[in-house]
Write a structure and sequence with these properties.
The structure holds 2 protein chains of 2 kinds. Chain A is mainly α. Chain A has 9 helices and no strands.
Chain lengths: 224, 359
């Protein structure tokens, strides 16, 4: 405890930790957005075309089982990036996010009420406009549950990046471990949890904003 | 006018949903497609706006082959009311109604103004426009569905079992509302239902379809009841069709007798016949049995009355009022619900046979 106060009392440490927190948030949230943007069209196509469905869902399961560390190490070779490039982590986590979110997208679209879709066709919607203005907004509650899981998953996975030198708060773990010095580890864990909590609250808030029509109904709960 | 010319729909699994259907739905009239499940009535309806494409044959709207139009554009010119309303849960009632005007590029302000007019037209307060569909009752949602279908003022309105998911009392209100709207708007309506009573009530002409999508009979409702084409139609039209046919017989020449009345709240001496109690506005409240007396007549001693026959209505109402009255004589009211007199069942039947002999 004394160590912890001393560690945090040092302005240099404060700055370093704060910077790592910002990096961590960026490394977790940018891929979350990219993964979601990728998962939407993939899931939409998989839900629409029966043959694609099994393939896409199978592939997304397999992708998610690839160990993150392996992906971090392989990607520089595939992308032509330097091993210390942030991009490696961003791309890897975007892939995980997409893999994690494809199924919720498909499930959410499956669950759309048939009479509403039939009505939209009968009103004269064309497919793209219907997807963007009817299907997507209605899928948000189910999708949001998936996004919440993915956000937590990303925030925890970023730390693994510390092993290849890009890991946000994860670097506090490697630092503490190498020096047999606990305070950075404690601070790292606390801030990771706090970040996950704040992001989750923000996501719930966003969901509320996006779905005023759901007010008063039970909200979709995260499956985590 | 919507015309089916030898329209057939075969699904990939080989089932024939509609078999060489020839049908003309007249402009400005309500044409009802009715039949048991599997008779192809919904398939037929959905072929009109190309949600389903026919395997064979041609459908024309005002002599124009529907295949010549882009499906999305065609649909924007055809109102569609679906079972359970199919409202967009994520849009306010007002924006739901504004859907087609928005799609056709009216601009938000004008589309919403039009939507507000339509809410009024279907009998909903404009303030309800700010709510979301989930906050409305089933009947209200269905009204919104009708308003949405009418928003762009399409000449054609397709209705697919629109009232089947609401309770009978609400359904009857919605049916009356539709008839009132239709008398104002004069749309070409094609209405699908499995309920023969609904078909008979709403249809200017009724097409009875049988399994396999074949047309069994296409006729005005009175003719369907009076002269069913075959056993299938007769059994589908169902029991009591002789009685129900009275819905289409006028009551000209029916004698309305004066009734002995008492007023609620008055002192009433005992008499040996039934008396009809009326409220200060002259509306029937119930029957007072023979031999009853009261210092101050209250409603709880009254026997509930039968149905009331509104003057000018068809004979069915008159006969029902007489048959359902505890006094054996039915109460007749005017358009304001004020008592006009009584009718006897025997006289209704006598009038009926007189009309039959005369015609």
């Amino acid at each position: 405890m004394e160590d912890l106060v001393k560690y945090l009392g040092n302005p240099r440490n404060q700055d370093a930790v704060l910077e790592l927190l910002v990096v961590h948030a960026r490394l977790a949230l940018v891929p979350l957005l990219l993964g979601l943007l990728a998962a939407l069209p993939i899931g939409w196509a998989a839900q629409r075309y029966r043959r694609l469905r099994a393939m896409v869902l199978g592939a997304s399961n397999v992708m998610y089982t690839v160990p993150s560390l392996a992906l971090f190490v392989i990607l520089p070779g595939l992308l032509g990036t330097k091993i210390l490039d942030e991009l490696n982590v961003v791309v890897a986590l975007a892939i995980y996010t997409a893999a994690l979110l494809v199924r919720p997208v498909v499930d959410a679209l499956d669950a759309l009420p048939g009479h509403v879709l039939a009505a939209s066709t009968a009103m004269g919607y064309r497919p793209l406009r219907r997807a963007l203005t009817v299907e997507l907004p209605l899928a948000v509650p189910v999708l949001a549950a998936g996004v919440r899981v993915a956000s937590v998953s990303n925030i925890s996975l970023v730390s693994v990046g510390a092993l290849i030198g890009v890991g946000g708060l994860g670097q506090l773990f490697t630092e503490g471990f190498q020096n047999s010095y606990n305070p950075p580890i404690v601070v790292g864990i606390a801030l990771t949890l706090a970040l996950a909590l704040v992001v989750d609250l923000l996501l719930v808030g966003t969901l509320r904003l996006l779905t005023p029509w759901q007010a008063g109904r039970p909200t979709a709960r995260s499956a985590a | 006018m919507i015309e089916f010319r030898a329209v057939t729909k075969r699904f990939p699994d080989g089932t024939v949903a509609v078999d060489a259907l020839d049908l003309v739905a007249d402009s400005g009239k309500i044409t009802v497609l009715v039949g048991p499940s599997g008779c192809g009535k919904t398939t037929s309806l959905r072929m009109i706006n190309r949600m389903i494409e026919p395997s064979d044959g041609t459908i024309l709207i005002d002599d124009l082959d529907i295949r010549s139009a882009n499906p999305a554009v065609l649909r924007r010119g055809i109102g569609y009311v679906i079972q359970q309303a199919g409202l967009f849960p994520h849009r306010t009632v007002l924006d739901n109604v504004a859907t087609v005007p928005m799609l056709t590029g009216w601009g938000r302000r004008r589309a919403r103004a039009r939507a507000a007019e339509l809410l009024e037209l279907v009998g909903l307060p404009t303030a309800m426009g700010r709510r979301y569909p989930a906050q409305l009752s089933g009947g209200q949602q269905q009204r919104v569905g009708v308003a949405r279908a009418l928003a762009a003022d399409p000449p054609v309105l397709l209705m697919d079992e629109p009232f089947s998911a609401v309770d009978p009392v609400v359904r009857e209100g919605l049916q009356d509302e539709l008839l009132r709207l239709q008398s104002e708007l004069g749309k070409t309506v094609v209405f699908v239902t499995h309920d023969i009573d609904e078909a008979i009530k709403l249809g200017d002409r009724v097409a009875v379809l049988r399994e396999g999508g074949r047309l069994a009979q296409f006729a005005p409702p009175a003719e369907l009841l009076a002269r069913p084409a075959d056993d299938f139609v007769a059994s589908f039209v169902g029991r009591d069709r002789g009685y129900r046919a009275l819905s289409f017989v006028g009551a000209d020449g029916l004698t309305v007798h004066p009734l002995r009345t008492v007023a609620v709240g008055d002192a009433v001496p005992a008499v040996d016949e039934w008396s009809l109690a009326v409220d200060p506005a002259g509306r029937p409240r119930g029957w007072l049995p023979p031999g009853s007396a009261a210092d101050q007549l209250t409603e709880d001693v009254l026997v509930p009355g039968g149905s009331l026959y509104t003057q000018g209505g068809p004979l069915r109402g008159a006969l029902d009022a007489a048959l359902s009255s505890p006094a054996g004589r039915g109460a007749v009211v005017d358009a304001d619900g004020k008592l006009a007199g009584g009718v006897d069942a025997a006289e209704v039947l006598a009038l009926l046979s007189a009309q039959r002999d005369g015609s």
